[in-house]
Amino acid sequence: MAKAFMGVRLQRLREERGISQVALAKSLGISPSYLNQIEHNQRPLTVPVLLRIHSQLGLDPQVFSEDDESRLIAEVREVLADAGSESISTAELRSLAANMPAVARSILELHRRARSANDRADGLLGALGDQQRLPSFSMLGQHEEVRDYLNRRHNHVEELDEAAEMIFRDAALTIGDAAPRLAQRLRDKHGVRIVTSSGSDTGADKHRYDAATRTLVLADFLRPGQQAFQMSFQLALLEAGDVLDALLRDSAFTSDESRRLARMGLANYFAGALTMPYVAFLQSAEEVAYDIERLANRFGVGFEAVCHRLSTLQRPGMPGLPFFFVRVDRAGNVSKRHSASDFHFSRVGGTCPLWIVYEAFSQPERVLTQIAGMPDGRSYFWIARQVVSGPIGYGRPQKTFAVSLGCDLRHAHRLVYSRGLDLTEPDASTRIGLGCKVCERRNCAQRAFPSLLER
């Protein structure tokens, strides 16, 4: 950790706990004048002092994470540009993110609400013009709120990992073949009957639960690993409800719909943690150099499920690589995006068309790689592949997406996909951006819109 000037953040945390400056200085073993200098950014917050703060106040060191600060800077810069604000220097943004992160997040929340209001107005105009029934408008903002919650946690929910590991041991589940034991646990402990359906009982969903008859209906096209995932999802709602409720109480979501979406997202997290338990999955990932297809085969799940799980491995003291995960369709719609690091997905406009994830649609079944250089000078390593899900059979429509997993270039040598590539050659990288509307590159032949940053 570099020396960090985060005095206002420390002062706010101290005042929230009702601790005087003198009392905190005494508990940390430093002089009140030294603590006063830290709080006024005249001295940096060093690692030894940070560790003492963690010990005395029980604070997660991530509270002072510089990765969080970098992401916050990028997000605030973007929303201010979208709002038409005058150019604001990086130094000013860094000062805001480091010293007043709550204010910075409030700006992001106001922007999210403004976008939701604009979407509502656009939808209302369209509905009135077409004389059609008024649609529901608020889903976009609510999805963003849930994503922001997970990203603030670096896409890692330790409480659910621990609960899943406990059930994995108690149910004597087998890695790669968990479905039979899960079905037995649902039947014996909860009286849940499992049946399969050709689709009429599940519609477009992979499963449907009838609480009145205690019947879990699974789509007939699900493979055993996918069946295990859907059973684990239902088990989360039946056995980990208290954990889910506690997480939602502490989340400060602004609406019932956001809480509903978050509950479903957290139940899906639990399902991934139960079918791919943390320690065994991380050890396997390291053993095969993060070979996604080998991991999918070993744990009996799909390519996308493995990518998603890899983006959650941030347990303190036993972290995996800090990945970012994204799923898009052919039209460029981003339906999933999660980050365990400081990488920032754009909130404004689309993504960059030069990104390897879009090339995956033209080369099905192949895992593609890309070294991508960003406008801020940082470089990342990406892999991407097309995935298909849904019913099997003639005339039964399926869903097609491209999924991509990325990490900072300094970690790329640990991935099997980097073998044979020159990771040190600057000319080997593709110059991409976060999206045309917020990209600083002036000479890009693929630019679709003027940059908001050039106003």
TrEMBL record:
Q: Name one GO molecular function term.
A: DNA-binding transcription factor activity
InterPro entries annotated for this entry?
A: Cro/C1-type_HTH, HTH_RamB, IrrE_HExxH, Lambda_DNA-bd_dom_sf, ScfR_C, TransReg_Diox_bact_type
What does UniProt give as GO cellular component? cytosol
Locate the HTH cro/C1-type domain: which residues? 10-64
Kindly give the Gene3D superfamilies that the UniProt entry links to this protein.
lambda repressor-like DNA-binding domains
Q: Which Pfam families match?
A: HTH_3 (PF01381), Peptidase_M78 (PF06114), ScfRs (PF09856)
Which terms are listed as keywords in the entry? DNA-binding, Transcription, Transcription regulation
In terms of SUPFAM superfamilies, this protein maps to: lambda repressor-like DNA-binding domains (SSF47413)
- Domain of life the protein comes from: Bacteria
Task: State the similarity comment.
Answer: Belongs to the short-chain fatty acyl-CoA assimilation regulator (ScfR) family.
Protein's name in the database: HTH cro/C1-type domain-containing protein
